[in-house]
């Protein structure tokens, strides 16, 4: 296995740092980098940094990489300027095995500027370099093609290396930037990856297809007060030569995996550790102001991991598992090996959903102007159980008194109190003469502060009345004996008068 010596690492990074030193310090250079990447996206000329030959687009576009070469191991070094102009200085080295003789090396790049004079190909055994005849960029397929003067031999291994520039985008793809506000209202920056399905090529040149698995050695540069994460544990941390206040985190060699599962994060997040699993180092990461909300994940995560190990009779193959809640993520979560990313709210607060539902309900006239969805939902989410509404009709039947209490399966069941539980209950009803079961919007509400509600304008006592049409609301209804008898007579005479969804729920009460 070919590995790059520390001296070569420093040499490459010093060269590219010198080349891009102006990028770090000036808005003009930032604009220059941004425009160069924009040229890449449009398929225009790369810039004076490259002298790329432009290929003609084939009529029948084949986006799959040639199968003459397979990657074995990557070394990727990235220095993202998160708190600067969002540029990325990078170096990539990949060991490859030749499966069929070829004079071309094709891999993926997107939104990256390569330095053609730094692209090197060498024999893994002899370290002898091979001359590159031409650099070609096929923008429609995200291909970079190195045309060699000499054919690569089948069965041999070679090393391809190059330096490049990138940009932390704000599109939540590839290597992107994320922001949040701290408790003092200050903007804090972070950088994270989302490579699924084919966006590793936006972070570093690679063979970006799931079948082309390889091992990875990741190096991430960070300011000393920040933290980095990747799929594997950190092997060592050393200062960045010539850049005070910067550190390199070198990660252990990974297991073979697809490029879309490679992941890394640079942030000022904090973590809590779990002691549940003594074999796997399990940590949950979040912003300082929200880390107290990570306790449940920290408790249940290791248990879930152990469950699946037992269920599949397979051991988790990595020495650690990090889970991080990011403020900006295009998916709900991403199952990167060793570093699972989850999405969290950036600017929403707990009651935002209730607020917007209230506005919509007021606009549509579903709720009175003095009633909010939060008022209603708090009674359903902050206490256990659900209500049973008792309907007691007047002697002449033209009105009814409705009361509520917590439903218990057995009336004699022990409960601290059934009368202390009260809900906002939407009331719908129909009568024997109307038999309209389609109106499920509440005609009135029983408030949690009311002991009872009186419903008037009902039919005479010889006609039934039924509440909670189609069981649209989550509560049961119990009637007085007389009304139950009227409903029973209706079911015996013609049960189709009562809609099936309502009829089915009648059997749930005595």
Automatic annotation (TrEMBL):
Aminopeptidase N-like N-terminal domain segment(s): 70-261
Molecular function, one GO term: peptide binding
One Pfam family hit: Peptidase_M1
Main location, first listed in the record: membrane
Keywords from the named record: Aminopeptidase, Cell membrane, Glycoprotein, GPI-anchor, Hydrolase, Lipoprotein, Membrane, Metal-binding, Metalloprotease, Protease, Signal, Signal-anchor, Transmembrane, Transmembrane helix, Zinc
Membrane topology: Lipid-anchor; GPI-anchor; Single-pass type II membrane protein
Annotated localization: Cell membrane; Membrane
The UniProt record lists the keyword Transferase: no
Domain of life: Eukaryota
Residue ranges of every copy of the Peptidase M1 membrane alanine aminopeptidase domain listed in the record: 296-343
InterPro entries xref list: Aminopeptidase_N-like_N, Aminopeptidase_N-like_N_sf, M1_APN-typ, Peptidase_M1, Peptidase_M1_aminopeptidases, Peptidase_M1_dom, Peptidase_M4/M1_CTD_sf
Protein name: Aminopeptidase N
